[in-house]
Amino acid sequence: xxxxxxxxxxxxxxxxxxxxxxxxxxxxxxxxxxxxxxxxxxxxxxxxxxxxxxxxxxxxxxxxxxxxxxxxxxxxxxxxxxxxxxxxxxxxxxxxxxxxxxxxxxxxxxxxxxxxxxxxxxxxxxxxxxxxxxxxxxxxxxxxxxxxxxxxxxxxxxxxxxxxxxxxxxxxxxxxxxxxxxxxxxxxxxxxxxxxxxxxxxxxxxxxxxxxxxxxxxxxxxxxxxxxxxxxxxxxxxxxxxxxxxxxxxxxxxxxxxxxxxxxxxxxxxxxxxxxxxxxxxxxxxxxxxxxxxxxxxxxxxxxxxxxxxxxxxxxxxxxxxxxxxxxxxxxxxxxxxxxxxxxxxxxxxxxxxxxxxxxxxxxxxxxxxxxxxxxxxxxx
Amino acid sequence: xxxxxxxxxxxxxxxxxxxxxxxxxxxxxxxxxxxxxxxxxxxxxxxxxxxxxxxxxxxxxxxxxxxxxxxxxxxxxxxxxxxxxxxxxxxxxxxxxxxxxxxxxxxxxxxxxxxxxxxxxxx
Lengths: 381, 123
What we know:
Distance between the termini of chain A: 47 Å
Number of strands of chain A: 19
Mean pLDDT of chain B: 96
Number of domains of chain B: 1
Strand order of the largest sheet of chain B: 1-2-3-9-8-5
Strand content of chain A: 25-35%
CATH superfamily of the domain at 3-72 and 158-247 in chain A: Probable tRNA modification gtpase trme, domain 1
Helix content of chain A: 10-25%
Strand content of chain B: 25-35%
Distance between the termini of chain B: 28 Å
Helix content of chain B: 10-25%
Largest interface: A-B, 27 and 26 residues
Largest sheet of chain A: 6 strands, mixed
Radius of gyration of chain A: 20 Å
Low-confidence stretches of chain A: 4-14
Mean pLDDT of chain A: 95
Order of helices and strands of chain A: HEEHEEHEEEHEEHEEEHEHHHEEEEEE
CATH architecture of the domain at 3-72 and 158-247 in chain A: 2-Layer Sandwich
Oligomer: heterodimer
CATH topology of the domain at 3-72 and 158-247 in chain A: Gyrase A, domain 2
Largest sheet of chain B: 6 strands, antiparallel
Strand order of the largest sheet of chain A: 10-11-12-9-3-13
CATH class of the domain at 3-72 and 158-247 in chain A: Alpha Beta
Shape of chain B: globular
Radius of gyration of chain B: 13 Å
Structural class of chain B: alpha+beta
Number of helices of chain B: 4
Number of strands of chain B: 9
Order of helices and strands of chain B: EEEHEEEEEHHEH
CATH class of chain B: Mainly Beta
Low-confidence stretches of chain B: none
């Protein structure tokens, strides 16, 4: 057999060729003790699975799954003029973001290319950003370069980040953390757990109701233990995190999003608020506003495949005999029982119901364009 | 019947001049949930080291190499409906294909069970 399975390689290659030993996160020992299979992911040892990706995927859709996403970057932005400073870099309406509210946003370059996607929360005392683990060092560099000197950027590298996701997540967390169940989707609060301050938001990356919980690293193991003491909760690895987010139609940076993609072709125009469309004034605005007005040659679409064979990132998509695009992520959907994929295709072939084919190892697999999410979101609005 | 193993985690159970090929239990455990298996066409001629099968898991697609050269004589049709057989019964019911051996001498380069177990223990 080929050795594709041996480990998940780093999401982003090192700049130098020397192999770098992955770093251990606060829950490293906890994952190993619970039988997590650890792989090098974004420069950290992370659990890719425990009992198996399909079982973990299904458990999260039916009960509650606990994900360790401590590799992600947690940043705060503070200082006089923080709103304006962030609005110069993000296309979101930060001025209208009330304390306790969270938004999905994008770091864009001058050409409107996506440097990263992120969550930004107004915590009252600061703006709190969660960025992708593999991109956080680049993001920090970008923010330091373009934020004014009077703005302070902090990297909360001693905080762990857990996600509790699934239909039973709210009942579980409410039992431990008073106030959690009162939050609505994309709302956030600092809540007390036995004297530990938790930064809790009602959001996630699975399409299910759930929470992301920022916890001091030294308290992370006790919190994970307390959550998993509830029989409705199981720890879930990165493998199921990927299959869940794919079903939820949520793009993954480095695969479905990159500097080569823009928010409009990526289907993320919702992240450019109405006021910012009218006023511009954010990095990449000229290109993004033009794309909004004129449309883009390529569009990110969902594809449902016939049969059982999956199409993976990089597979060419055809409309008849003409190449029409490329798959950016794909795999078997445990919830639907057939393979699904995201692809960028020519806008002319992006309408739901369009029949296309995908080249997988020299074979053409039939696929049709379907609306995303593939599996309906169940957010607590 | 004698079973041989490869460093790529295939097994071949040889009876007369026919071999039955699959992946080892260790390999299926590493791959995780298998969702699809692409099998060769009966009658296909294979050279040692060709990759006539693809095993798709939720995470990735992996090639399966033939341990020996020969002609495919049969494939495990049950895998079309139940690819998870490779997970639940990798070294028996989850077999992939049968091959008429072109050169039984090729078997000499493969491992026996004890050698394979030692090899896996060292990974």
